Amino acid sequence: MSNSSSITEFLLLAFADRWELQLLHFWLFLGIYLAALLGNGLIITAIVCDHHLHTPMYFFLLNLSLLDLGSISTTLPKAMDNSLWDNRDISYQGCAAQVFMFAFLITAEFYLLTVMSYDRYVAICKPLHYGTLLGSRACVHMAAAAWGTGFLWAVLHTANTFSLPLCQGNVLDQIHGNTLDQFFCEIPQILKLSCSHSYLREVGLLMVSVCSAFGCFVFIVVSYVQILRAVLRISSEQGQHKAFSTCLPHLAVVTLFVGTSFFAYLKPPSISSPTLDLVVSFLYSVLPPAVNPLIYSMRNQELKQALRKLFSWKF
Length: 315
Fold this sequence. Notes:
Blueprint: E1 9-11, H1 19-49, H2 56-85, E2 89-91, H3 92-125, H4 130-133, H5 136-161, H6 187-191, H7 199-232, H8 237-266, H9 274-298, H10 301-314
Helix pairs in contact: 1-2, 1-9, 1-10, 2-3, 2-9, 3-5, 3-7, 3-8, 5-7, 8-9
């Protein structure tokens, strides 16, 4: 055994062994990454440039797009680099940076989704108080709280994880090496390399994080139960449709984000396998940032109109 200070790099899990398949993965990842950059970039630009979208809902959507850009840029470029150059290593410092950024952005995103559910609850259940409860200062404070909470949890988890003594070896797809069972650096996989019972400290911190996330999930569910009750009391069918149309994109994003994350971490060990774990981790870390712009723009007429104005101004 050796202390973590003697480890200079980790090995990441490869998506394929053959060069042809690795090249195919590179082009697939590149397409997904460019689509995510384009989609989120267009949403950010449209919201910034169109004063009609300077509302709490779109302010939070802008923050969500920024977080999505950051999270997919934390994992996918390194995966593309490894696939293109048939390389699996990541430096110790690079791994720590990836753990910190991913934990920071994913945690902030979940708290932001919770804030966005509150925004929809106030807009539909307490419309007369919307301007008071969600003024510009309140929105900035809530968004800053989401970003700040994500940063705090990321600092705690990263410092705790990389202070543990790690076994000699460096592969994240086999427990006996410094190989991680993952295509990017992730805390549970690094804990498998720990040589002492000190890892239980980080496990305890993870459990606190899970409890906090569960609290946010309960808040989202309760918010949507109240929203559903309020919408069903609307007499006109057109009013019900309009209310639902403002909530469905957020509900779809929450379902995608929470569903893939919960399945990744809470699936039964009996169905776990390296291939399934790799696919599931890819889904929850890459799919939401790439798909979220499509979900939000698909039925959002205000956003579509802003994008049309943006393109007409450009061309």
